[in-house]
UniProtKB/TrEMBL annotation:
Segments crossing the lipid bilayer: 267-290
Record protein name field: Legume lectin domain-containing protein
Lineage: Eukaryota, Viridiplantae, Streptophyta, Embryophyta, Tracheophyta
Organism name: Eruca vesicaria subsp. sativa (Garden rocket)
Record's keyword annotation contains Membrane: yes
GO molecular function, one term: carbohydrate binding
């Protein structure tokens, strides 16, 4: 009985204890039944993620990791080193095309903003203008020059952006050369150096200037919430362009202590354990206490009976207690 009680109690408290989790995944094929990826807008899986179909204009497609991703620990303020690799293809059918795709980190629950096609890349709109009203960091492969916010004189570029459509750091990138070519991208963050970097290369293009990298010093602890929505966004405008994500992996160094709230299962188990312990008290503890009380009363009764028996025997033999007069006592004590 004692062992059973201890087992149930330890099981219950184990459910309430915090646990650690770090995120690592690798996806080489995207299917509709994979619950790890959530789709919004035009995005659909068919082995690849089709963010935007080249046949449609002014559209947005999103593909994000379905769960929140921890990038720093709210208890220790410790940021995570992380690395993510992905491959993509851009389909350009003419000399006029747009607008590009982005890898982004945003607040939990972040969804596609309305009217966010074309140069807004599915992340902004006219309401929030060039800057975001919420924490947002993204790396853009921008294929169309928007004079309002893009680097002057550069038609297409790769940029690292902090809460803005205007890139905090950027480099020229010639999207025209890479239609249907597979691009391999690596995005990494060094938490100690606060260095967010991106590098890319192509499978078919051997031009050295098209194999490049970029970095930006940024403290993600100060910029983003501890948990983020992470994924890809692609957008087209009045000119058409196709965007596909072919593979994606992510590796994080951070073990975050997750303080779990009691779920339905633990609540039911807790209530059951409480009822069980009350029942144990009624069935085992109360009778045990009553038994011990009876034992104490019986022992006291035997002691009284023994003393009574001794006094009666002594009285019968004349050896028991006797009464003396005051005179006899005074004479015996010479008082």
């Amino acid at each position: 009985m004692k062992n059973s009680i201890m087992f149930l109690l330890s099981s219950f408290f184990f459910l309430l204890l915090p646990f650690t989790s770090s995120l690592n995944f690798s996806i080489s094929r995207f299917t509709l039944g994979d619950s790890r990826i959530a789709y919004q807008g035009d995005a659909t899986p068919n082995g690849e993620i089709v963010l935007n179909n080249i046949a449609f204009t002014c559209r947005v497609g999103w593909a994000t990791y379905a769960k929140r991703v921890a990038i720093w620990d709210s208890e220790t303020q410790k940021a995570s080193d992380f690395t993510t690799n992905f491959t993509f293809k851009i389909d350009i059918s003419s000399t006029s095309y747009g607008h590009g795709l982005a890898f982004f980190l945003g607040p939990p629950g972040f969804t596609v903003p309305p009217n966010s096609a074309s140069g807004f890349l599915g992340l902004f709109n006219e309401t929030n203008g060039h800057s975001s009203r919420f924490p947002l960091v993204h790396i853009e492969f921008d294929t169309f020059y928007n004079v309002e916010w893009d680097p002057y004189g550069i038609k297409s570029h790769v940029g690292i952006n902090n809460n803005s459509l205007a890139s905090s750091n950027f480099t020229s990138w010639n999207a025209t050369l890479h239609s249907q070519d597979i691009c391999h991208v690596q995005v990494s963050y060094n938490a100690v150096q606060r260095n967010l970097s991106v590098s890319w290369r192509y499978e078919e293009t051997s031009i050295p200037s098209e194999i490049s990298s970029l970095y930006y010093i940024i403290d993600l602890v100060q910029v983003l919430p501890a948990e983020v929505t992470m994924g890809f966004s692609g957008a087209t405008g009045s000119m058409m362009e196709g965007h596909k994500i072919l593979s994606w992996d992510f590796y994080s160094s951070l073990d975050v202590i997750e303080k779990t709230k009691p779920n339905r299962r633990s609540i039911i188990l807790g209530a059951s354990l409480s009822s069980f312990l009350v029942l144990v008290s009624l069935v085992v503890v109360v009778p045990l206490c009553l038994k011990r009380k009876k034992q104490r009363e019986a022992k006291a009764a035997r002691r009284r009976e023994h003393l009574t028996s001794i006094n009666e025997e002594d009285l019968e033999r004349g050896a028991g207690p006797r009464r003396f007069s005051y005179k006899d006592l005074a004479t015996a004590t010479n008082y």
